Prior knowledge:
This is Pyridoxamine 5'-phosphate oxidase N-terminal domain-containing protein. It holds the Pfam family PNPOx_N. InterPro entries: Pyridox_Oxase_N, Split_barrel_FMN-bd. It comes from Mycobacterium paragordonae. By secondary structure, the chain is of the alpha+beta class. 24% of the residues lie in helices and 29% in strands. Strands 1, 2, 3, 4, 5, 6, 7 and 8 form an eight-stranded antiparallel beta sheet that branches. The chain is globular, with a radius of gyration of 18 Å. The chain starts with 19 loop residues before the first helix and ends in an 8-residue tail after the last strand.
Amino acid sequence: MLLPLAAEPFTASTDRDMLPSERREFVRTHRTAVFGYRRRNDGPAMSIVYYIPTDDGELLVSTMAGRGKARIIERDNKISLCVLDERWPFTYLQVYTDATLDEDRDLAVDVMMAVAGRMSGQPLGAEARPSIEAMCDRENRVVIRCRPYSTFATPPRHLHRNDEGEQLSHWVSGVVPWDAADPAA
């Protein structure tokens, strides 16, 4: 089941690394990411996408079957989504995933409907479905199913004044398994 857009995105703490449960909540409550994959001869390919989280932990991305994002899955199913916080100070969460291509038309339409809702900030009504179905057919849309297996976080750090530089601190984050439990308090 596709999850609805969260009323409020999760806000990361500015004084510590995110807990594993907070990383999952960050991903569940945001909507945009940089979709990245390895290219044969050049640096990584990257594009901004809207993604849809599901109740079973997948992240779904709509794309045209002829685009590189869909074609790469046949060669290399390891992709990453760099989930972006849309508020200042920025933070991001890198999500490493195993990806598969799903050509189910109904799912593609459902994901496109959900993406349109995320773009506008409100769900589309049923009256929009015929137009979305026509677009899905015209653009030969498919869904990339991303199954997260680990994450890497960066904290939101910001200078409010130039004289704060000595007080600014960073810490090392690490790759954390997607399904990791929070440490005992």
